[in-house]
Amino acid sequence: MRLEEKLENSLVMRNIRSDEDVVKFARFNAEFNNASEGATCELLLREHKGMTQEDFFLVEDTSAGEFLATICLIPWEISFEGIPIHAAMLEMVLSHPAHRKQGLVKRLILCFLAEVDKRGYEVSLITGIPNYYRQYGYTYAFDLGTSEILPAFLLPDSAKSPAGRYGLRNANQVDLGQLAKWHEENNRQKQVHVLRSDDHWRYLFDKAKFDIRIVEDTSTHAAVGYCLVNESADRKTIQIPEAVLPNHEVAQATLNLLRTDVTERIIIGCGKQDVLAQLVGEYGSVASRNTQWLIRTHDVVKFMNRIKPVFEKRLACAGCSCMSAEVIVNLFRYAIRLRIKEGKIESIQNVGFLDSSMGADGGDLCIPHDAFIRLLFGYRNLDELWDAWPDIVVKPEKKHIIEILLPKLCGHLYAPYHYQG
Q1: 352: closest CA among 403, 301, 411?
Q2: Which of 157, 272, 341, 347 is least surrounded by Cβ atoms within 10 Å, i.e. has the fewest?
Q3: Does the pLDDT of residue 161 top 70, yes or no?
């Protein structure tokens, strides 16, 4: 259903509804953000197969025909240990400089959150202004922008030699199926990762103009891997936000080949489990941590029920397939009761407020909501969280089962969509 809500004076909050709106939405983001954001807006509006005009929201001053604020919803699918989770990404958050501090963005975000709930998304996520989005229930829960920076002079002499039997070429349409296969296979080692459809690969290649390089065995002309490449205009820096390479030999050859195009540094943004990230670590790269993804779980209990098979698999792997137990997790405002019967999750329920004051039995794990989200998504374990949240209380006799149910995970979220041309 299309949005059309009259606000005060001549303001209206609504969706995109015409080609003229598309042009104005993109122009607004180009003018008050940057040209790249403007081009990306238009690309998403015209070319992204998973999006419609109802995914773009704006506040317009109808008396002047002027856009005053925008946001959009980008749909993603995240694999959580094999369970597909529908995620809505909040993006293109922008207000006109002359109309800020009037609550226009707040209205759009509240509208976005209502839409997320209505459409049945299980989580929403965003990158953005530090701390700002916490007021809307978002919690930092995954590394974002973490990279390994390798100064060119740290490449050992052996790595500066010719790449030998491997070469690089630009990807073409025929490669897209193989790229999708490599991406899927590589992500199996990551318990939490973004799924990428064939349509999205085509969007990245055809529309967003990503520089995708195929690594090829020159003796057989067989493709063995790929990397995404961003080269700075001054040719001092090459960024590799994603690379799927089979082993260190191929990774080293890829570095050798890219080394000829850069004078100062190579920045590897792959997951720390990936071969290329491991290799540059051996060469002495410096880890750079940027920020973290902000995650909002719209209904924690519903999400936990969605991943019941994950809990049961963890119990079985820990030798607890015959266990029967009850675990109460108290988030202070409400508590969650998880019942296990012979290794199966019998129920996960919100049991309302549970007193955790002095002298009361507050449950098996008392933990603030933000800390629990980090625990639930496997970003941190209990011991790591306790330093920042000393109000976490866990019953010693239940700690082992809680750590089985909620372990630290290997996760990496990379959700590319920006125009690169």
Answers
A1: 301
A2: 157
A3: no
Tokens of 17: 């509804």
220 and 202, same structural domain?
Answer: yes
Domains: count for the chain: 3
The reply to whether the predicted model has a pTM over 0.90 is: yes
**DSSP symbol at 18:** S
Same structural domain, 50 and 164: no
291-297/139-144 β-pairing: antiparallel
- Examine the fold and report which residue of 104, 139, 174 is the final residue of a domain before the chain moves on: 139
Residues 229 and 305 in one domain: no
State the residue range of the domain holding 87: 4-139
Given a cut of 60, whether residue 222 has pLDDT beyond it is: yes
With beta carbons less than 8 A apart as the criterion, state whether 263 and 155 touch.
no
Domain contains 316: yes
* 412 assigned to some structural domain: no
Q: In the structure encoding, which two tokens stand for residue 69, read together?
A: 């604020």
pLDDT at 261: 64
Instruction: Please check whether residue 198 lies inside any domain of the structure.
Output: yes
Residue 162 falls within a domain, yes or no? Answer: yes
Domain of residue 343, CATH code: 3.30.1050.10
Closest CA to 373 of 362, 388, 385: 385
Q: State how beta strands 83-95 and 123-126 pair.
A: parallel
pLDDT for position 29: 97
- 341 sits in which H/E element: strand 335-341
| 272: CATH | 3.40.630.30
- As a whole number of angstroms, the distance between CA 152 and CA 32 comes to 36
Cα–Cα nearest to 85, from 201, 191, 243, 241: 191
Question: Stretch 97-111: mean pLDDT, rounded?
Answer: 95
What is the overall mean pLDDT for the chain? 93
Pick the last residue of a domain from 242, 258, 289: 289
Residues 347-401 have pLDDT tens digits of 999 999 999 998 889 999 999 999 999 999 999 999 999 999 999 999 999 999 9
As a whole number of angstroms, the distance between CA 210 and CA 53 comes to: 24
Q: What integer pLDDT is reported at residue 236 of this predicted model?
A: 87
Q: For residue range 252-285, list pLDDT tens digits in order.
A: 889 888 877 667 888 998 888 899 999 999 999 9
